[in-house]
Each structure stands twice: as C-alpha cells, then as structure tokens.
Design goal:
Elements (H helix, E strand, L loop, with lengths): L4 E5 L5 H11 L5 E7 L2 H14 L6 E6 L5 H14 L5 E4 L6 H5 L5 H27 L6 E5 L6 H6 L21 H20 L6 E5 L4 E2 L7 H6 L3 E2 L1 H11 L10 E2 L9
Parallel strand pairs: 1-2, 1-4, 2-3, 4-5, 5-6, 6-9, 7-8
Helix pairs in contact: 1-9, 3-5, 5-7
Family: Belongs to the short-chain dehydrogenases/reductases (SDR) family.
InterPro entries: Fungal_SecMetab_SDRs (IPR051468), NAD(P)-bd_dom_sf (IPR036291), SDR_fam (IPR002347)
Protein name: Ketoreductase (KR) domain-containing protein
Length: 268
C-alpha cells in the first residue's frame, strides 16, 4: 500500500482550507490530512461534513487544534504530530484574517487593527513554519505553502494593475469602503517571509511557494458571500483545488515564487 503523504492545513474548518481538504479527499493519491482549527468542535464538525461529501476516499482526516497566534498552541500541536507521525510532508499556511470591519465598527483602534492583522497573517504563519520545520525536514519531499494575495504585489499596486478601491476625497482620515490596508500590507510582509525562508532552505530540499488564489467567496473580513459575489468573487473551491494541484507537483517549476490558479507568476 502506498504510504500516505501527511499534509497539515491551518484554518481548514472553513473557506479555502476546507476546500483544500475536500480536494485532497477526492484525489487519486492517499493522504493523511491534519485539519487545523482553533476549535476542536469546529474541526470535528468540518470533518463530519467532509466525510459526508466524500464517503469513499483512500485518505484519512485528523483534527488538529492549533491557534497560530499562540506559541503554546503551536508547540502542543507539533508535539502531538511528532509523537504520532514523526514528520509532516506539507505545511499549508492557510489561516489568515482581515479585521477592517472591526475597526470600522469601532471595536478596535487602528493600531490594534494593524497589530491583530500582522499577528495572524505574518507572525502566526512564520512561527507556525518555524516550529514545524524540523518535522518538515523529516520528509523526503517537503512542501511549504503560504496563502498570499494579489493585493500584496508592490508592482501591481504602483502600476494600478490590481483591483483597488477608488481614490477617496481629499482630507484625513479616509472613509473608504473595503479599505483593507492592514491586510494588504501584512500579505506583502508575508511575501518577504516566503522569500527569506525559501533562500534559507535552499540546501534543505524544501519546495516553497506563495499561492495567490484570487478574489474568492470565503467569508474573509466578515464579507457576506452575496456581496463578495457582486464584487466578482469566485467560488472558494478554486483555491482548494489550486492548493491540491501545487501539492501534487503542478508548480514545481515555480518554486520560490508566487503563483495564481492560472499558473501565472505574480510580480513582487
């Protein structure tokens, strides 16, 4: 029997992460999928739903409680996996957040908005990788993925080739709908983390990518799916299938770069 690849996906109880698990369950390849979630209850609910969607699969799913803004939680998750499996073949840093809606509702300050966003999207993803790299290096084919965004491209932003809100009227502060500055800046920082780690791991046989799935209906930023759809968002399954395809070798010729579902390399 073919040994199952062990794939850990953070934030996998909803959105793109959930769809990635679904795509892996439907693959011809067998996997052990570690479904990461901050809540064991939500992880189990997601697994129940996934098993109903794909009742016949050669893969297995295991719930993994991990909160990427807590070192203690990450360490506990690593110990659990180390004791049971001893390795991870792929780490998908999917968990991410956008808190602009909380700031606009007056629930957090602008500084809190920035710090909270960076803690999840940059520090959380980096520390998750930092703690799990020893287990990843135990794999014969280690793969490392960061979910980034088309909005993170410095070249695209400066040249106006990516989707941006209209220029607001003069004056400060600005009151721009969907002004996701904190999210955009955090994902640009995450891209540098990818570049730096890819360089550091040159001699460790680790294949690393940033994946830019595009505007999808995921519930990110508390945006209702109907509103996202009116903005041109695609189905979250696009991102899940994309992750599965990269894990199975589709973008091995673009290691160390940011790629989108069309196979195009995103400008830094």
């Amino acid at each position: 029997m073919t040994e199952r690849s062990i794939v850990l996906i953070t934030g996998a109880n909803t959105g793109i992460g959930y769809q990635a698990v679904l795509a892996l369950l439907q693959s011809q390849k067998p996997y052990t999928i570690l479904l990461g979630s901050r809540s064991l209850e939500k992880a189990r609910a997601a697994i129940d739903s996934l098993e109903r969607e794909v009742p016949n699969t050669s893969s297995v799913i295991s719930a993994l409680v991990v909160d990427i803004v807590s070192d203690e939680s990450i360490q506990a998750a690593r110990k659990e996996i180390e004791d049971k499996w001893g390795r991870v073949d792929a780490l998908v840093n999917n968990a991410g957040a956008e808190f602009d809606w909380e700031y606009k509702a007056g629930k957090i300050t602008r500084r809190e908005l920035l710090n909270k966003t960076f803690d999840v999207n940059v520090s959380g993803a980096y520390m998750m990788t930092d703690y799990f790299l020893p287990l990843l290096l135990n794999s014969s084919d280690p793969r490392l993925i960061f979910i980034t965004s088309g909005q993170s491209s410095l070249k695209g932003f400066s040249e106006g080739t990516i989707r941006l809100p209209p220029h607001p009227p003069a004056g400060w502060p600005k009151n721009t709908p969907f002004d996701n500055t904190a999210y955009r800046v955090s994902k640009t920082a995450l891209n540098m983390a990818l570049l730096n780690l890819s360089r550091q791991l040159t001699n460790d046989n680790v294949k690393a990518w940033g994946l830019s799935p595009g505007l999808l209906k995921t519930g990110l930023g508390n945006v209702e799916p109907s509103i996202a759809e009116n903005m041109g968002a695609g189905d979250s399954s696009v991102g899940g299938i994309f992750i599965k395809e990269v894990l199975e070798g589709r973008e091995d010729h673009h290691v160390g770069r940011i790629v989108n579902p069309a196979g195009q390399v995103q400008d830094w």
